[in-house]
Amino acid sequence: MIQYKEQDVYLGCGDLVKKVALVLVIIFILTIIGGNMFWNHKLSKTYADAKVADKTHHTQTAQKEKMRKWQEQSKIEHLTARLPESLKNKIRYASSRNDVVKIMMIVGSDGTGVAEQLQTQLNKSYGSDLFKVNEQNMGQSTSLDFYNKKLDSILSLRKSDQPDVVIYTPFIYNDDHKVSTEDSEAMISLVYKNFTDKYSQLTFLVQPPNYSAKYDYINERIDKMKTYAKDQGITYLDYLTEWPKKIKDRSKLTTEDGHTPNNQGKKVWTTYLTSYFSSEK
């Protein structure tokens, strides 16, 4: 019978334990390596997916922005279709740079409030604050007073306040019995020349005061002014084509003095101007 020494048994068990331990260590190391490789692969895939998603997002954002600009440009082209090219270019330029087109309305006391209404209507038409409408109200000044005493201050505005468009309403009612028809007409040319000499890129427009519901001779002066402005080659905004022909109907659009427009009269005036600037005529 073979005899095993106790020491040999202990040595055999020790070798077995070492081998098992070594296998477990190897398995543990392989598990760690495998897990690390798995997570590295997963992280790489996640990063790659994130880059693709980010690129897709940027592409979609760029496409949306491009579409938005195209739609905005198309809208501007539509709204300015009937405007003079120089004015159309001003609006295009301002729109492309998120700037504003500055409109200055020079009126007497009978034109108060029209600028504010025009501002509101243009915002609605264009869907943004593309225009800034400013009213320069000369009160009871005659044409001569305006030219001799107030025009220079307007022409000396700082650059940020200088107008792109001037809409001048001759002071026919203020001039009545104070300034002759010929001098009132001459002031149109002088004001036009001063503005265009000072601001070479300016768009200068003339619009009439509204017809009187009381005095035909005033209406004749207004009609003569229209002929004069056209003969001088100055753009004339004839909103009086929308004004009632009959005296009784005109009185519904004016206050008691027969010529200062009431709210309904201002609406007729403003609607015409809005149509002009948004090519809806």
From TrEMBL:
Superkingdom classification of source: Bacteria
Organism: Terrilactibacillus laevilacticus
Transmembrane segment boundaries: 20-39
Keywords, ordered alphabetically: Membrane, Transmembrane, Transmembrane helix
Name under which the protein is recorded: SGNH/GDSL hydrolase family protein
InterPro entries cross-referenced by the UniProt entry: SGNH_hydro_sf
